[in-house]
Amino acid sequence: MEKTKLPKIMRDFLVYLTTIKGKSHRTRKEYEYDLTLFFRFYIAIQNDLDSSDITKIDISTITIQEIREMTLEDLYLFMEYCEMQRGNSASARARKVATLKSFFKYLKGKRRLIEENPADELETPKIGRKKPIYMNIEEATQFIDGIQPNRASPRNYCMMMFFLNLGIRVTELCQINRSSIQGRYLTVVGKGNKERTVYLNDSCMQALADYENSGKTTYKGEGEEPLFVSQKGTRFTRQTVAKIVKQINQQSGLQKERLTPHKLRHTSATMMYKSGADIRSLQHILGHSSVATTQIYTHIEDEELQHVLENNPFNIVRAR
């Protein structure tokens, strides 16, 4: 498939995202996709082209002069197209709004290439806050017990212990190097290349020792040696770890619907909160930039609080 040629200003913006803003290459690809779609839509509208198939539209000729002529109405039309013709959910459209806001802010604030920012007044679609899906302690125990004994089981067990005890992201797990661990402390590189230090409890230390003593696969790549090495001798990818989680889910007989590494992170956070972790501590452990993100875990108390209130001795219906 031929690679889409991008306008220079867009290439500059994408470089800025990774080198200056510290965004991941995955985030950069998402921004590239969103902007490519937007430019194709804009060209289609300006030239009365059929927007039902815009994948062949060349965006490499977009100029800064054309960008200066873009209006808030153009952005609204694009969001309507994403919702009505592409069937984008509120969260998918919210990401596109974030992309457009970031791009036009860069053009005005960093490059001084536009005087008016059309995305200033662009609202983000309201997204219903989803409750995190997680395992309870019995399900988590069944999941862990389902790791089949083989050469890879000490490694897989250690990875699952790190997920369930530390609440780390799958990308963070893949990036852990041997040098990331000093004594009982692990340095995790999170979103935006932000580092945080987490404590390794007894469960993690025991799992790590068993993995280290298991005759694990030798690393065959270049650069720093990863802690977790695949059977091919390479650093793990998110997709490979997801397959391992899926396999354990099936072999354990748990077969929890759509169980992913991210659900293990939710499980860890939920269990820590239920065990008394305060929100600020949890925010640091999970590496959330905003405490509002961490507060999604407070939902777990709702049913318990309801039970307490129903059992209040004054909960008496009296005839009047």
TrEMBL record:
Keywords: Cell cycle, Cell division, Chromosome partition, Cytoplasm, DNA integration, DNA recombination, DNA-binding. It comes from the Bacteria. Residues 4-108 form the Core-binding (CB) domain. The keyword Nucleotidyltransferase does not apply. It is found in: Cytoplasm. Its main location: cytoplasm. Residues 130-310 form the Tyr recombinase domain. Transmembrane segments: none annotated. PANTHER family: PHAGE INTEGRASE-RELATED, TYROSINE RECOMBINASE XERC. This is Tyrosine recombinase XerC. It comes from Lysinibacillus agricola. The lineage of its organism: Bacteria, Bacillati, Bacillota, Bacilli, Bacillales.
